[in-house]
Specification:
2 domains, 2 strands, Arc Repressor Mutant, subunit A, about 0% strand, two-stranded antiparallel ribbon, Fic-like fold
Length: about 350
């Protein structure tokens, strides 16, 4: 269930339970002022239990409510509350990036996404090659537009379509913006050509994708040899070249040893921006690799067309600063549903 479907009070209850590693009805009630009644809290707790966000243990006065999560990296944080604090007021948690990265999805979640994907596959079987090509073009165009927009590119969707299909550059935009969009198309062409190759990830494949996406954009190729800082956060990625290479190799091993394609894709999607192996273009690379892995296993491509750029940025910062993957996971799941329902 998406956090946006909860009211403010329900979010506060969930956050309180999460922060305290469980709580009784009485303590939750004491957390609010007198304007919130016992019956209201009881209804909210029942609703959160029904939606699978919390679980109830014990009976009577010994009843305790716990957050229902498959992994501690998915504990509840309300982004609205968290980002009321300025960057320098937020305290960073230390995190071993390769710990606790299994079981990020419930089996029920993966079953639901698999069902959506199976429906998508069945629809594709009934389509003509010409229609399939047209829909694939649509996803590539919309992905290139949104992925570039996240990076500050000001091309609109219509101008992106004319650029990628007819090589018509919009006069009011810079050459660098056009190159960024065209590089996304080149990257997708490579993904389509090397489809099965992405079933087994390698550092070389990651570097190839990065090279294609940053071609002729004055971005250094290969593993960075100096530190980087990220706008909007005090999180500092590792700066030693050998540690970065080691982290990339661990990422590859982790992805290749993970069974489900959606979990594989999610790991690349979140860990590559965290490691920041390249001078620039890390997020672009992670987004295209997300699709490369899904495509390799015949899962729906994600255009990311409807993703909110601010929420995406907040999700990354929550991972950088609080080791929290809940918002990024929610955004990815929503985009997967969106793509299965809106393409082919």
């Amino acid at each position: 269930m998406e956090m946006t479907q909860l009211n403010k009070r329900q979010k506060q209850i969930l956050e309180y339970i999460s922060r305290n590693k469980g709580s009784s009805n009485k303590r939750i009630l004491e957390h609010f002022d007198e304007s919130v009644s016992r019956s209201t809290v009881a209804r909210d707790l029942a609703f959160l239990c029904e939606k699978g966000l919390i679980e109830k243990k014990g009976k009577g006065r010994s009843t305790t409510y716990f957050e229902n999560i498959p992994n501690e990296l998915l504990f509840f944080i309300d982004p609205e509350t968290y980002f009321k604090k300025e960057m320098d007021e937020r305290k960073l948690l230390k995190f071993d990036v390769f710990e606790n990265l299994n079981t990020l999805f419930f089996k029920e979640e993966l079953d639901e996404l698999d069902k959506l994907n199976n429906d998508y596959r069945e629809r594709m079987k009934k389509l003509t090659p010409a229609f399939l090509k047209k829909e694939q073009e649509r996803i590539v165009i919309e992905f290139a537009w949104k992925s570039s927009k996240i990076e500050g590119n000001t091309y609109n969707l219509i101008d992106t379509e004319f650029l990628l299909l007819k090589n018509e550059k919009a006069k009011e935009h810079t050459e660098e913006e056009a190159k960024m969009l065209l590089n996304h198309k080149k990257g997708f062409d490579f993904v389509f050509k090397e489809k099965k190759g992405f079933q087994k990830l390698s550092v070389g494949l990651i570097e190839n994708i990065h090279t294609l996406l940053t071609f002729d954009l004055k971005i250094k190729k290969g593993i960075r040899k100096r530190g980087v800082r990220i706008l909007g956060t005090n999180y500092i990625p590792i700066s030693n070249e050998y540690q970065i290479k080691e982290a990339l190799e661990k990422l590859v091993l982790l992805v290749n040893s993970t069974e489900h394609p959606i979990e594989k894709a999610f790991l690349v999607y979140v860990l590559l921006p965290y490691i920041q192996p390249f001078e620039d273009g890390n997020k672009r690379t992670s987004r295209l690799l997300l699709n490369a892995i899904l495509f390799a296993y015949n899962y729906s491509l994600l255009s990311l067309r409807s993703i909110n750029e601010k929420d995406y940025k907040k999700g990354l910062i929550l991972f950088y600063e609080q080791n929290n993957l809940r918002l990024l996971k929610e955004l990815l799941v929503n985009q997967f549903r969106f793509s299965c329902e809106n393409y082919f």
